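Hi L.,

You mentioned the student needs an example of a multi-chain input paired with its predicted structure. This one should do, with 759 residues in total across all chains.
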Amino acid sequence: MQLKVDKTLVASIALHVLVLGWGLVSFSSKAFESVPEESLPVDVISADQLAKVMAGTKSGKKENPKPLVEKIAEAKPVQENVGKIAEKAPVVTDTAPPPEPKPAEKPVEKKPDPPKPVVENKPKEEPKPVEKKPDPPKVDPIAEALKKEEKKQPPKPVHLASAAQPAKQKAERVYDETQIAALLDKRDPSRQAVAGEALNSNAALGLAKGKAADNSATWGALFKEQVLRCWKKPYGGIEATRLEVEFSIKLKKDGTLEVMPAAQTAPSSPFQRVFLESGLRAIIECAPYKLPQAFFEEWKYFFPVFDSRDL
Amino acid sequence: MSDQHKHAPFLIGRRQLLSGLATGLMLTSVPRARAQSRVIVSGGEAAPLPIAIPNFVGGTPQDGDVGVGVTQVITNNLKRSGLFAPIDPAAFIEKVVNIDAAPQFQNWKTINAQALVTGRMTRQPDGRLKAEFRLWDVNTGQQLSGQQYFTSPEYWRRIAHIISDQIYERLTGEKGYFDSRVVFVDETGPKERRVKRLALMDQDGANVRYLTRGADLVLTPRFSPSTQEITYMEFGQGDPRVYLFNVETGQREIVGNFPGMSFSPRFSPDGQRVVMSLQQGGNSNLFVMDLRSKSTTRLTDTPAIDTSPSYAPDGSRLCFESDRGGKPQIYIMPATGGPAQRISFGEGSYSTPVWSPRGDYIAFTKQGGGQFSIGIMKTDGSGERILTSGFHNEGPTFAPNGRVLMFFRDPGGNGGPSLYTVDISGRNEQRVPTPGFASDPAWSPLLS
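Structure written out for the whole complex:
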């Protein structure tokens, strides 16, 4: 029995084997590299806690009075950008559009002499455009004035890139990719270093170690999350007034209660008493608490406030 | 930046970090905030309180059964209220044998109980039954309440209801409502030949007693404040009449002798008067009758149907239903008559208003959109709240504490109506067990 072998089939198989074999060898040799990311402590906090973290204050004390200094030279502090928004000057760049001619006088002032009378006349003509064109009176008179000026080819106002401007405007419709480079800002990148007497690389107002995590939003949220699990909030009816009861808690380092929590609020109604007792039960039942050891000084003695409000 | 991030709670921009730092500075400037912070614990759902109610121990071996019965009634009451979550006795670790010693609270903490009820039932030498109970706070180890009662052995259920009220009041801050009764219309037989009898039962559906034989049709029974009398309407041989029924003696009498039909009666809060509707041609007006002097006073005089009057708990005002504006709506007027003020303005028509014993709400039946709903509104008509809607819901009546409503619901079809309770927030709807079909419930005041 003779076996008839198709040569193309053989070639195909051989090629497949070759390609797959190469792939197996070359791809398996090196595992994908995964750079271990440094983990960040993430804490879920509520919107009002976030608002507290974010809220700044103008009267706040500055803990780091030393200004940012990157270069030792004659003191030339960079202006603080906090609270001085009003003094900010408008930024003018090459690519910025020409200032909009809002007030009628403005273009007049900028223009060199020749077009002056023209411009002055134009606004006067504006009420009459109906005679010349059937344009609706909506047309911006100033825009039209500018158009006419352009037709008359008045000297351009002094612009930084004045030389390139007229040429480009004529060739507006022509796309020339070799000219793209002309659009680029050819100035050298520059950066002003903050000069001062002593180097200080800390740009923040606060201290380098960052105190944001110190406020109670972090460990407080941890405490809240844990105590909520045990809190059987009593149902106060549909017209329940908002209640707040405050306790004082002393915790040991392992999170257990050092003493029985004490209520700081005296109950004034039967329901307030019930509400207070429910909070007390929750605090006791949920101990020990797992709170960050770094802030033990803060949570060893604090005042949880149970609020009847639903979130 | 990375250094700061290590301390930041989450990724935030430099500017945000900056303002966060500013807050930190601000907080430190408040002297107390530095060392002792206030942590606000808010949110969280209102949750039923986990409560352990081990069987009441018997003072003598024979009293064990009644102890178990009392425990079951208490457990059932608290569970039905929706505010408590009684723990399954199978989970109990400790068996209470002596209620005079403090329980091992750790054993109850383990099963997540926050409250614990222990009790004992003892038959006295004189034949009476002594009931004792203690309510404990498991977490603080404090006794919150403790009482003892003496009663005839046949009233053990009432003792259980009274203890339930004590627990409810101590743990919710509201008065209880378990030691109360409900009068209703019991319905039996096929739909076209329904037999309707007046019946009385405990609020949990136990101890049903039939007050009438069912020869005549009865409607709208209402308790007197003393719970000794019931006023209702009955279709006798002639016109429907308002009757007064004495629960103890079984005697009944007609209230007044009026030419036309009299209906929808209700007692005044002092029990001295009955207010009702009298038919006058195609209209009906409200009249009040003094039960002692039998003198009748007209309260309204309109060419409309005024009916379903109900007193405010202080007896100063009445709410009632009237179609003087075209559709049935709820009106309020002084109890002595005078100008009436409309308070219901929603879509549809309103009927069967009833004033809460607390005085804060008026419950009603609302008809509209092809549905019958039970709702409440404040006494000035604001804050309307629909608690349940469906094919047919009608006739709300308040529990003595004004926190729960009972009403009847007819699902339609060949079935019949049943009684339901619902919390005035619309939560926790529960069916009330009755022997047959039931309608027109009226809740009594607290018996004790």
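You could point out the following to them. Helices of chain B lie at 2-7, 14-29, 31-35, 64-81, 105-110, 156-172. Chain B touches chain A through 57 residues (CB under 8 Å).

Best wishes,
N.
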